[in-house]
Amino acid sequence: MKVTVIGGGLAGCEAALVLADGGVQVRLVEQKPIRRSPAHQSDFLAELVCSNSLRSDNPENAVGLLHEELRRLGSPVLAQADLARVPAGDALAVDREIFSGGLTKRIDAHPNITRVHEEALALPAGPEPVIVATGPLTGESLAQSLVAAVGKERLAFYDALAPIVQGDSIDRTIAFAQSRYGKGGGDDYLNLPFTRAEYEAFIEALLAGEKVAPHAFEEARYFEGCLPIEVMASRGRDTLAFGPMKPVGLVDPRTGQQPHAVVQLRREDVAGTAWNLVGFQTRLTWPEQKRIFGTFVPGLAKAEWVRLGQVHRNTFLHGPSALSPEGSLHAMPHVYCAGQITGVEGYVESAAHGHLVARRLLAKLRHEMFREPPAETALGALLRHVTGAAHPADYDYQPSNVVFALFPPLPDRHSKTERKTLMMQRARVALAAWASGARLELGPVPERAAQPAGDGFAQRGGRGGRGRRNRGGRDSRAESRSEASAIGGVTAPAGVVNAPKEIVGMQSISAPEAERAAALGAGESNRPTCTAEET
Ligand SMILES: Cc1cc2nc3c(=O)[nH]c(=O)nc-3n(C[C@H](O)[C@H](O)[C@H](O)COP(=O)(O)OP(=O)(O)OC[C@H]3O[C@@H](n4cnc5c(N)ncnc54)[C@H](O)[C@@H]3O)c2cc1C
Question: Is the pLDDT of residue 422 over 90?
Fold first, then answer.
């Protein structure tokens, strides 16, 4: 049987190669070079549309753990990233040409893959399986076909991410648990109360704070349904107090009074390890979000951020309701979806999701049972996000990187550093058990990943490293996104872009190239959705 993969990005390439290596005939439909999204520039498959970093390679970060799991499972994307690696401290940053060029070459040379250069305008009729991996900037025609299959309420064209704060970093002497008018469980939300003076100081800071400029293709008219808080504040100083910060139905137990305004926090995971600032999607730069929320929102002075806010053009399905447990559309069971279009976020997460979809399909074609990776692994946690299993019932589904808040919490309380080590150790045990049960070949724990914590390796990728990369105190992610917009798409270090195309797998690059790669924020994701320590 043949499988059609639509979209030759990170997810599509990973899925196509896993399937083809497994003996399946693959038809890979990619619209480039005939047509391009506003962010895609090169003719290569698996294009990195912005940063050349696949983020932290430290397995004590969720994304580093995902790298490790993919490597051990033989992911073609991770293997090529390792071949294309450029020095970037704790991050897995790559030479774009060696990375994307190498994957393109591999796909074009694969006897089981036929590449078709065309734009898919509609979802193909069955029964042959199809994987849709057309990414965050899926074209209008195919998007409308998806809408027809799933309903318009299940396909979003923009994300609207509110910040998420670590539960144990919220000041509980200030926050009080209460739902408006005691609805639901009566105490489902945490509320951070403002006096009038505190509210006014907050609005002042919000209006003055530095914002990320939208890309040319991000039209303001799309934002009406999910306005950034600073835009609401600019429409009138009381708009937020009558909107997401309205205090009605709430009484602060410390004063016995209704506060002037509140920031409401809603559980992000069932265990309540992470809390979402309800309605607080924002285009403030990351450093500004940390400064303004930490300084002006009562109870967040010591906040540790699991994710910071953003608003981007991003086509994605409501994974939990649009997709069956099999990962295909309820309405068209032969149509599987992979990558960012399912609501995962980031290069690595998209490749990882493509890997899992391909393995599931391989198992199906071989009439074998597919076992999902367990929740304790990074791969399993990512799937728990897409299926909704990681989230409470009323969760507002938005794209997510892989973060430890998606994993089941550890049974006992630990310091942050201990927690990360324990999460990593638990994941390794769970992955090994899963692979053995599923009779999958698992590579060894990679040497680099086996470095002990606390040797400076983790530190460089954490707060220490960020200071160096945040040039002039600006959010280097935001900055790089603006640069990308200014030149119509990709920002790339010149030395790296000019690397010879034929050299696939070259590991060493010249010092100036390495410096430029690092200086351009090779350790950063330019699509900011996860914790600073995770990137
Ligand atoms: C402006 C911008 C900046 C970003 N910056 C970063 C970053 O710095 N770091 C990060 O980790 N993530 C970043 N992301 C997110 C990142 O692009 C995605 O996570 C990742 O590329 C998604 O992989 P994918 O395979 O799902 O989609 P993509 O990589 O976008 O691949 C989709 C492919 O499908 C093709 N395609 C689309 N529609 C059709 C069609 N109808 N027919 C045929 N082919 C089609 C496209 O040409 C493309 O090759 C950014 C996204 C955007 C939009």
Answer: yes
SS3 129: coil
Cα–Cα dist 498/500, whole Å = 6
127-146 pLDDT, tens digit per residue, is 999 999 999 999 899 999 99
| Shared domain check, 439 and 396 | yes
Domain membership flag for residue 496: no
Please give the sequence-ordered ranges of beta strands (E in DSSP) within 169-222, or none if there are none: 176-177, 190-194
At residue 486 the predicted structure's pLDDT band, cuts being 50, 70 and 90, is very low
Could you report the per-residue pLDDT of 32-57, keeping only the tens digit for each?
Answer: 999 998 889 899 999 999 889 999 99
116 with 13, same domain: the answer is yes
- What is the distance between the alpha carbons of residues 19 and 27, in angstroms, rounded to a whole number? 11
Last residue of a domain, one of 287, 308, 329: 308
Q: pTM to 2 decimals?
A: 0.79
Residue 474 alpha carbon to ligand 1 centre in Å: 25
Residue 223: which domain range? 164-308
Taking CA atoms only, the protein residue closest to ligand 1 atom 48 is 9
Same domain, 133 and 48: yes
Please compute the mean of the pLDDT values over residues 248-270 and round it to a whole number: 93
Please give the tally of structural domains in the chain: 2
Distance 106 CA to ligand 1 centre (A): 19
CA 118 to ligand 1: nearest atom: 43
Residue whose C-alpha is closest to residue 70's, from 334, 308, 352: 352
Sheet with 85-86, edge to edge strand ranges:
53-56, 91-94, 85-86
Residues with Cβ within 6 A of ligand 1? Answer: 6-12, 29-32, 37, 39-40, 49-51, 119-120, 133-139, 142, 339-341, 345-347, 350, 525-527
CB distance 254 to 212 below 8 Å: no
